[in-house]
């Protein structure tokens, strides 16, 4: 039996166990940087399988490793563990039992799949040289990002990986398929907090006020010029505001308005230039209308860039494992992913895992209270990642 067939056989054999692990993690979600029980649960499974595990990295992070039959390359595989503050509405026997918390982004799939991958690689460790490091990361959903904090905590010590690989569930893609994109794939993500301060008063006498609501509206519209007229057309750029609070009343103009939004792009030089221009634009508009503007930017994740050579090699290996037609090309996305911190430091690839059932029903998207997966995808996920890891070592 060749190595691919051995991996596929082990994926089938391990599926019931990994399915149970995924459901346990799904039922017991923990928010970013609070993954204490999840990390303990994962570490216990790995250690029982004979895979040593270092705990407490960046708080709740784990690092396990599997050695091949002889020294060689070092590669790393990463999964995230945290859940989202969402109330699950699915009617499932394994629905979340934590009020207001849910694995709505598939991190339960990522973690359970990496456990399965680890078990496969442990059983086949006499078939490859080198070392595989398994990263179970906290806090992907919350700035400053668990990836960044793990790196600051010297995650790999002196033995750094030559290649790093991660996967992420993708609801529109059918189970059995995975997707790759070379180069720039996902956007940077920054948080924007604006406070406009004027002079409140009676809505019937606006001449006696400095209308913070009107001024905030002007600032909001003016800022869109940064995207529509100042960003190069070739650079994907998004500026969106999802929260605006003007806590007055029908006949009360408030003295203060707050706005919160996100700025995303795929060019680091433009990203930081745009920060300066947004601040200048907002403050100039507010001051010209008699108000003040406090403008704060919390820098989040950088743009995710998949190493072209590593991506091409991984896609070739995926076709060997899954078949030519099962590997898709991906478009860029303006969502963000803190795996970008790893990709800045090491040649890396993040690919997408199809989790859509072929039952004809439309998929529920990520970050929604209905999100769920076709659990058959677990066989694909653990086996594919195991073969990708081995293919970068042999």
Plain-language structure description:
The chain is α/β, with parallel strands linked by helices and 394 residues long. The protein has two domains: 3-186 and 303-391, Zn peptidases (Aminopeptidase), CATH 3.40.630.10; 189-301, Alpha-Beta Plaits (2-Layer Sandwich), CATH 3.30.70. The chain has nine helices and 16 strands. The strands form four sheets. The chain has an eight-stranded mixed sheet, sandwiched between helices. Strand 1 and strand 2 (61-67) form a beta hairpin. Helix 1 (3-27) packs across helix 9, helix 3 (107-123) packs across helix 9 (377-391) and helix 5 (212-230) packs antiparallel against helix 6 (268-288).
Helices, strands, pairings?
Blueprint: H1 3-27, H2 36-48, E1 53-57, E2 61-67, E3 74-80, H3 107-123, E4 131-137, H4 146-152, E5 163-174, E6 178-180, E7 183-186, E8 189-197, E9 201-202, H5 212-230, E10 237-245, E11 252-253, E12 256-265, H6 268-288, E13 292-301, E14 304-306, H7 308-322, E15 327-329, H8 339-345, E16 348-356, H9 377-391
Parallel strand pairs: 3-4, 3-5, 5-16, 6-15
Antiparallel strand pairs: 1-2, 2-4, 6-16, 7-14, 8-12, 8-13, 9-11, 10-12
């Amino acid at each position: 039996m060749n190595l691919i067939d051995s991996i596929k056989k082990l994926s089938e054999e391990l599926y019931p166990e990994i399915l149970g692990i995924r459901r346990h993690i799904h039922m017991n979600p923990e928010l970013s940087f609070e993954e204490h029980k999840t990390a303990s649960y994962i570490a216990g499974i790995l250690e029982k399988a004979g895979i040593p595990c270092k705990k407490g990295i960046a708080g709740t992070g784990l690092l396990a490793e599997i050695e091949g039959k002889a020294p060689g390359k070092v590669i790393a595989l990463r999964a995230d563990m945290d859940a989202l503050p969402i109330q699950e509405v699915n009617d499932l026997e394994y629905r979340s039992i934590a009020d207001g918390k849910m694995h709505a982004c598939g991190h339960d799939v990522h973690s359970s799949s990496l456990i399965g991958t680890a078990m496969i690689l442990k059983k086949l460790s006499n078939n490859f040289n080198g070392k595989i490091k398994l990263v179970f990361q906290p806090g992907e959903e919350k700035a400053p990002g668990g990836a960044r904090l793990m790196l600051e905590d010297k995650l790999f010590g002196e033995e750094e990986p030559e290649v790093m690989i991660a996967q992420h569930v993708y609801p529109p893609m059918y189970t059995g398929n995975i997707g790759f994109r070379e180069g720039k794939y996902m956007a940077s993500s920054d948080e924007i907090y604006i406070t406009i301060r004027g002079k409140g008063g009676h809505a019937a006498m606006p001449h006696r006020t400095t209308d913070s609501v009107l001024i905030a509206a002007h600032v909001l519209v003016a800022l869109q010029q940064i995207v529509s007229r100042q960003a190069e057309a070739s650079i994907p750029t998004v500026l969106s505001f999802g929260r605006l609070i003007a806590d007055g009343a029908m006949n009360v103009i408030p003295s203060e308005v707050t706005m919160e939004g996100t700025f995303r792009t795929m060019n680091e030089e433009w990203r930081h230039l745009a920060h300066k221009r947004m601040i200048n634009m907002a403050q100039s508009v507010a001051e010209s209308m008699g108000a003040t503007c406090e403008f704060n930017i919390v820098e989040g994740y950088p743009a995710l860039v998949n190493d072209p050579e590593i991506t091409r090699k991984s896609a070739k290996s995926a076709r060997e494992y899954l078949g030519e037609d099962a590997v898709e090309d991906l478009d860029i996305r303006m969502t963000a992913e803190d795996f970008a911190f790893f990709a800045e430091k090491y040649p890396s690839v993040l690919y997408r895992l199809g989790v859509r059932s072929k039952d004809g029903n439309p998929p529920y998207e990520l970050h929604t209270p209905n999100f769920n997966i076709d659990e058959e995808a677990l066989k694909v996920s653990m086996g594919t990642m195991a073969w990708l890891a081995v293919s970068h070592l042999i």
